[in-house]
Design a protein that fits this description.
By secondary structure, the protein is mostly beta strands. The protein is about 10% helix and about 35% strand. Strands 7, 8, 11, 12, 13, 27, 28, 29 and 30 form a nine-stranded antiparallel β-sheet that branches. Strands 15, 16, 19, 20, 22 and 23 form a six-stranded antiparallel β-sheet that branches. Strands 21-24-25-14-26 form a five-stranded mixed β-sheet, with no helix packed on it.
Length: about 475
C-alpha cells in the first residue's frame, strides 16, 4: 500500500484531536477560571530510502543529500495557557475570590491536596470554607494561639471560619472613663442644690451595660436646707444612682463608691485651672492627692440577675475616672461637662458580647470577622501554592489540578499570596475563562481545512491504487 494513505490517516487523526481540544475550549468559554489549551503538531518519523554522501575531492563529485519520505503528522504537545489570567467578573459575594498572579488555591478532599484557580467558595454546615462545585475544603493557616492577632504559617489545614468561638466576640469590662468639659464657678448647675448632672456608661465582665449618675456640686446642704459654698475651686463629686441599661431601672446609689465612699472632693487651682487632686473629706491641703488624677469607681453587682434570671457579671477591677486636668476649671467658662466611657485613645471602654455581623477577605488572604460591638477578629488566612512550572500541572476535572513530576511538588505549607509582591486576592470577584473565541474560531477554520486536505490525500491515493489494479485488465 502507498505510504501516503497512512500519512493521510495520521493527518486526519491529528486534526481530529486538535478539533477535540478546540471544542473543549469553546464548551468552557464560561467556566470559572478555565485555562484554554492549544495543540502543537510535529512531523512523524521519516523513512530514509537513501543515505547522504559526502563530496569527493579526488573525483570532483559533489555530495548527495539523504532521501527521506515522511510518514505523516502527530500531536507534539497540548499546551495550557495557565499563566494567562481571564477577565474579572464582579459578583459582590465576599467568598468569591480572584487571584492576581500565578498562584493557586489549595483545596483538600479529606485525604489529598489539589490546586485550583476557581475561587467560588462558600461556608458549609460545619463552618468550613469550601469550594461550591465539589465541597473540597479550602486550606490555609490559623491564628497563632500564643500570639492572638497574628498568623502561624505552618502546614495548611481547613479554614474553619464559622466555629462557635468565632460567632461571638468576648465581652470586656470597662476599666477607664474620663470626664471633660469646663466648670464655671458661676454656673447655675454646680451652684444648685442638686448639682450639675454627669453620666458615665460602663460594662461589667459579662458585657452588661450600666450608667453611673453623678452630681458635681459647689455647695453643701445644711440641716436647715440652706446652702454653704465650699472654698473657691473646690467641688464635690457624688454618686446619685446606678442605672441598669437593659431595663432602664434604678439599682440605687449605694452600689457605687468613689474611692470607697459616696462622694469625693475635687480641688482646682483658681488661677491656672490646674487639677490639684481629690480627697475623701472636705479638702485640706494635707489630704490632697496631687499625684493621682484617676478616681477609682467601684460598683457592687453581686446578686444582680439579668432578664433570664442569670447572674450578671462583676467589676473585677475599679474603673479609673480620669479628669481632664487642663481645661476643666475656668472662672469665665461655660458649665458644660461630659462623662464618657473609655480613655483618650479609645481603649478600655469595655464592650458587650458581640454577634458576628460580617466577614471580609483582605488582599493578603487574611479573613477578618466584624462584630456588632465594634470589634474585629482574625479568623485565618488563605494560603496559596506556586510552582516552578505551572504548565506541568495535570488537569483532573472540576477545575482542579494535581502535581506531576514536571510541575514541581507542593511543600505542604504554601505561601502568602503577597509574598515578594507576587500577587494578591480580590474579594467579590471571580476569574473568568481565558478562552479567546476569535482565536478558537480561526483555529477551527484552519483545522477544518487541514482535515479536508488530508482526506483528499486518501481519496487521491485510492484513485492511484485503482489505476494500478486496472493494469491487469
Amino acid at each position: 500500500m502507498m505510504r501516503s494513505l497512512f500519512s493521510g490517516v495520521a493527518g486526519l487523526r491529528t486534526h481530529q484531536g486538535k478539533m477535540d481540544v478546540i471544542g473543549n475550549n469553546i464548551a468552557n468559554v464560561n467556566t470559572v477560571a478555565y485555562k484554554s489549551q492549544s495543540v502543537t503538531f510535529q512531523e512523524l518519523m521519516y523513512q530514509t530510502t537513501s543515505n547522504a554522501s559526502g563530496a569527493n575531492q579526488e573525483t570532483g563529485r559533489a555530495g548527495i543529500n539523504a532521501k527521506q519520505i515522511g510518514l505523516g503528522v502527530t500531536t507534539g504537545a497540548i499546551n495550557t495557557a495557565i499563566t494567562t489570567s481571564g477577565a474579572s467578573q464582579s459578583t459582590g459575594n465576599p467568598f468569591d475570590i480572584q487571584i492576581n498572579g500565578n498562584s493557586f488555591f489549595i483545596v483538600n478532599d479529606g485525604a489529598n491536596n489539589y490546586f485550583t484557580r476557581a475561587g467560588s467558595f462558600y461556608v458549609d454546615g460545619a463552618g468550613n470554607l469550601a469550594m461550591t462545585s465539589n465541597g473540597f475544603n479550602v486550606m490555609g493557616w490559623q491564628e497563632d494561639p500564643t500570639n492572638p492577632g497574628t498568623i502561624k504559617q505552618d502546614n495548611v489545614t481547613p479554614l474553619k471560619i464559622m466555629s462557635a468561638a468565632n460567632l461571638v466576640s468576648e465581652p470586656e469590662q470597662t476599666t477607664k472613663a474620663y470626664v471633660t468639659g469646663i466648670i464655671d464657678k458661676n454656673s447655675t448647675g454646680v451652684n444648685s442644690k442638686d448639682g450639675q448632672v454627669l453620666n458615665i456608661s460602663f460594662y461589667d465582665s459579662l458585657g452588661y451595660s450600666y450608667v453611673a449618675k453623678f452630681a458635681l456640686k459647689h455647695n453643701a446642704v445644711e440641716a436647715n436646707g440652706t446652702l454653704r459654698p465650699y472654698p473657691e475651686g473646690v467641688y464635690e463629686m457624688e454618686i446619685t444612682d446606678i442605672i441598669d441599661s437593659a431595663t432602664n431601672t434604678s439599682l440605687g446609689a449605694d452600689l457605687g463608691k468613689l474611692n470607697g465612699q459616696q462622694s469625693v472632693f475635687l480641688t482646682y487651682d483658681t488661677r491656672t485651672g490646674e487639677f490639684l487632686g481629690y480627697s475623701n473629706n472636705e479638702p485640706a491641703d494635707k489630704n490632697i492627692k496631687g499625684d493621682m488624677n484617676e478616681l477609682p469607681l467601684t460598683v457592687n453587682l453581686d446578686g444582680l440577675l439579668d432578664m433570664e434570671n442569670e447572674p450578671k457579671g462583676t467589676i473585677t477591677t475599679p474603673i479609673g475616672i480620669a479628669l481632664d486636668t487642663s481645661t476643666m476649671f475656668d472662672n469665665n467658662g461655660t458649665s458644660t461637662i461630659y462623662g464618657t466611657a473609655g480613655n483618650y485613645d479609645g481603649q478600655y471602654a469595655g464592650r458587650k458580647v458581640g454577634d458576628m455581623s460580617g466577614v471580609a477577605v483582605q488582599q493578603d488572604g487574611k479573613i477578618y470577622a466584624t462584630y456588632d460591638n465594634g470589634t474585629t477578629k482574625l479568623l485565618g488566612q488563605i494560603a496559596v501554592a506556586s510552582f516552578s512550572n505551572p504548565s506541568g500541572l495535570e488537569k483532573i476535572g472540576e477545575n482542579l489540578y494535581q502535581t506531576t513530576m514536571n510541575s514541581g511538588q507542593f511543600d505542604g505549607i504554601g505561601k502568602d499570596v503577597t509574598a515578594d509582591g507576587a500577587g494578591s486576592f480580590k474579594s467579590g470577584v471571580l476569574e473568568m475563562s481565558n478562552v479567546d473565541l476569535s482565536q478558537e474560531f480561526t483555529e477551527m477554520i484552519t483545522t477544518q481545512r487541514g482535515f479536508q486536505a488530508n482526506s483528499r490525500i486518501i481519496t487521491v491515493s485510492d484513485t492511484m491504487i485503482e489505476e494500478l489494479t486496472n493494469l491487469k485488465r
